[in-house]
Every structure is written in C-alpha cells, then in structure tokens.
Design brief:
Strand order of the largest sheet: 3-2-1-4-13-14-15-16
Structural class: alpha/beta
Shape: globular
Number of strands: 16
Helix content: 25-40%
CATH architecture of the largest domain: Alpha-Beta Barrel
CATH class of the largest domain: Alpha Beta
CATH topology of the largest domain: TIM Barrel
CATH superfamily of the largest domain: Metal-dependent hydrolases
Length: 459
C-alpha cells in the first residue's frame, strides 16, 4: 500500500487529544509509520476535521440480534421472555440470510467507528440440529460479512451443549447450537480456515482480517467437565476465550443449587480464567468472584445498553477494574450500536447505582472502547495511534448539535455514532463523510431484517 498522509485537527494519542491541532499521520502497509504532534499540515495530506481516535472495538456481538431492534423493547417481560423472541429469529436464518444480516450489521458498526468486532457465534447448524454440508457454513457467512463490511472479526466459536445447568438436552431452536460434546465442538471449530476467505470489495492485504477464538456460552450451556476442553483448545492456539458470566441472578441460583458454587468458581475450577479470557456481563458477582477474576487478570466486557434494555442490572465496572480486570465494551444485542454510548454508560450507570460521580476518567473510557477491546479480541497491535500499530482511525465531528462547543476530551460524553465522519481500517478507507464506501447501510439493513422477520416499513 502506498504511504498516505492525514492531518488531524485533534488526534487522541495515548495520553490525551493533542490540543495544538497539528498531528501528521503517515500510513503504509496498513500500519502507522509516523505520528508527529505539532506538525504543520503538508500539502499532500488529507485533513481530518474534528477529533480523531483509534479504531473502536466491539468486544461482544450477536449479529442476528440486530433484527430484534424495536420489536422487543415495548411492554413487560424479562430476559427469558425476550429470549423466546430471539430464538424465533434464530430459527429462520440460513447461511445466505445470515450473511446478508451480518454484512449490514457490521457495516452499521463501521459507520459507528467500530473497526473490529468479537462475534459470539453459536448459530452453527440447521434448524433441526443437522449439520450443513460445510459444518462451518454459518461461521463462514460471518467471516465473509466482516470482509464485505470492511472490519476485522474475531469469530468466537461458541460451545453450547445443554439447555440448563443440570444438563437438560437442547430442544427446539437450541438444537442448532449444539455439537454433542466439547470434543466434537473442537473438531468442528478447528476446521475453520479464515485465511481462505477474502472479499472482492476489501481484499485482505494486511495479514488476515479474522481470528478464530473460542467461547463457553455459559455454565448453564456447557457442563463443568466439558469446560476444560474448550479452554485448552483456546490456550493451545493462543486465542481468546470468552464466556457469558453471571448475567442473570437465576443463573447464579441454579449454579449454586447444582454445583454448590458460583459460576465464577466453576470456571476457576475448570481452568478457564486468565489473561486471555473475557467474562461478558459479570453483573451479579460476589466479592470472592471479583477476587478470583482479578487475581487471574481475567478481562470483563460490559454491555450497558443491552444490560439496561433487558433489565439485567448494572455491572460493577469500577470494582472489577480496581482488582485488576481489564474492562472492554460490547453492543451485544444491538438495541443500540454506539460505542460512545456504551463508554459513557460505564460511568453514568455507576453514578445511578452509587449516587457518586467520577468513577472513570475519560482516558479510561477511551481505553475500554479501544485498546482494551482490541486486546480482548486478540488484536494486541490495534487500538492506539502509535508507530507500528494497525492504522485504524475514527474521526468525530465537532460541529454537530451534539458536539458543538464540546472540548476534544469531551467527545466521549457528547458524541454519538452519527457524529462519525471518517473511518480507516488497516489503512483502508471504509467510511467517508459519514457514508460507507461500498454499502447502502439503511437499505441493506431493511432488506435483511425484512427477509428474516417478515416485517417491513409500516408493519
């Protein structure tokens, strides 16, 4: 790739947004080769007005949940009643419709400044539980979707074996999630070859655009004696391991009743905690749980907009960070795709819970949305504007109704996804002047969601 130069009005370098408005960025072969604060704008540089941040990382996604937005928010119910609506969508998807929906969802993420996504993928098989001719056809659809949308993907291939903590078999829509046991899960997941997939729109020129990690869906979906197999699979490959943890009080109660332990203790006994592990949600924890997670340096991914949408509760983000857990962010069910909203919710939701302000600094919120999220997904060379890092850039305008008059450091508390103007991923332009360069995102979303739900505009 030919070296290109950008001049950012403000660039958020590792410490803070540089206030002198002159930052020179040169990009070659998809990485930053020169970052010089205070440099006059050269004549051949593209100007980036506003605040330019590192690429944002969405560390927890279920792409097909995007079809539920606006369909499940009204009325009463709880997580479990919402889950039945989610299963109805899951039962209708095939590789082609999944590709279309994920492609549009990932393109929406690109518009929001997300340059990398962690897809918690358990929609593996046919609706009756039988395998496709290619057992990884659904995962391949996600890999291709990310390539077409122009963002990197960590495919967290998810082991999902039982319907409850006491080992009840999968039934109904859940049958397409399961592989029988963890050994067969590992055999199937191990056959995924991400390097075989590239897109004509965004050919893979900088390494590969995909990593394949692992996930334990939850302690209710993977028996305790199967968890070590999944953890060992990820460890042998040096890839991330993610797990839904203590999202629901009912999950904790069932786990204690069956195992006599909390879900965190079950994972610890199975050898599933550690620096490459990320616990998603981690909302309802004991003090001992937090100590176990922090002692193992296990990461935690908070998903505040989903947690509030499902009335799950407020995660103890500050307490977890204080014991040594790196904190990342995810949009999970995609009730909202906006990492700025997720980041400020880390702070604002804790204010509601504690009636105290100032739990996280702006730099900590920025790190959760950028470098910590990339690290949780296995991309330790991304999430910062520094020489040698992957050249991901997200520029946020400062002249919108939301951001006018806001100081550069304040964009995390003021900006929305709609304020993103330009996005580069590995040095490639994916969003220019607020539009995806290859995908009509609203039209693609409308068509993909209508195909899955049968609900079009006005219905």
């Amino acid at each position: 790739m030919t070296a290109r130069r950008y001049h950012a009005e403000y660039a958020w370098l590792p410490d803070r947004p540089e206030p002198d408005a002159d930052v020179l960025i040169e990009i070659a072969d998809g990485r930053f080769t020169r970052v010089v604060p205070g440099h006059p704008a050269p004549p051949d540089a593209q100007r980036l007005p506003g605040v330019t941040l590192p690429g944002l990382a969405n560390a927890h996604s279920h792409a097909f949940h995007r079809a539920l937005r606006g369909h499940t928010q009204g009325g009463r119910g709880d997580f479990w009643s919402w889950r039945e609506r989610m299963y109805a969508v899951a039962s209708r998807l095939d590789p082609d419709s999944y590709l279309a929906l994920a492609r549009a969802t990932y393109a929406e993420m690109a518009l929001a400044g997300i340059t990398c996504v962690g897809e918690f993928h358990y929609l593996h098989h046919r609706p009756d539980g039988g395998r496709y001719h290619d057992p990884n056809a659904m995962g391949a659809a996600l890999i291709e979707a990310a390539a077409q949308a122009g963002i990197r993907l960590t495919l967290l291939d998810t082991c999902y074996l039982t319907a409850s903590v006491d080992g009840q078999p999968l039934a109904g829509p859940q049958r397409r999630f399961g592989d029988g046991d963890a050994t067969r899960w590992a055999e199937r997941a191990g056959a995924i070859a991400p390097n075989d997939t590239a897109s004509a729109s965004f050919p893979v020129t900088v390494g590969r655009h995909v990593r394949v990690g692992a996930a334990v869906h939850s302690v209710r979906a993977v028996p305790a004696d199967q968890i070590p197999i999944v953890a060992a699979w990820a460890d042998a490959r040096g890839e991330p391991l993610h797990v839904h943890l203590s999202e629901q009080p009912a999950e904790n109660e069932a786990c204690r009743a069956y195992h006599g332990k909390t879900p965190t203790e079950v994972l610890a006994d199975a050898g599933a905690l550690g620096p490459r592990t990320t616990a998603v949600h981690a909302t309802h924890l004991t003090d001992a749980d937090r100590a176990l997670l922090g002692g193992a340096r296990t990461g935690v991914c908070l998903c505040p907009t989903t947690e509030r949408d499902l009335a799950d509760g407020i995660g103890p983000g500050r307490a977890l960070a204080d014991v040594g857990c790196p904190v990342s962010l995810g949009s999970d069910s995609h009730a909202v795709i906006d990492l700025f909203e997720e980041a400020r919710a880390m702070e604002l939701d804790e204010r509601l819970a504690t009636r105290i302000r100032g739990h996280f600094t702006p730099a900590e919120l920025r790190d959760a949305a950028t470098v910590a999220g990339h690290a949780a997904l296995g991309w330790s060379d991304a999430g910062t504007i520094a020489i040698g890092a992957r050249a991901d850039l997200v520029t946020v305008r400062r002249d919108s109704p939301q951001t006018a008059g806001v100081p550069p450091v304040g964009v995390l508390f003021a900006a929305t996804a709609a304020d993103v103007t330009d996005v580069l991923v590995d040095g490639r332009v994916v969003v220019r002047e607020g539009r995806h360069v290859t995908i009509d995102v609203p039209a693609a979303l409308a068509a993909a969601i209508t195909a899955v739900t049968g609900s079009g505009p006005g219905r």
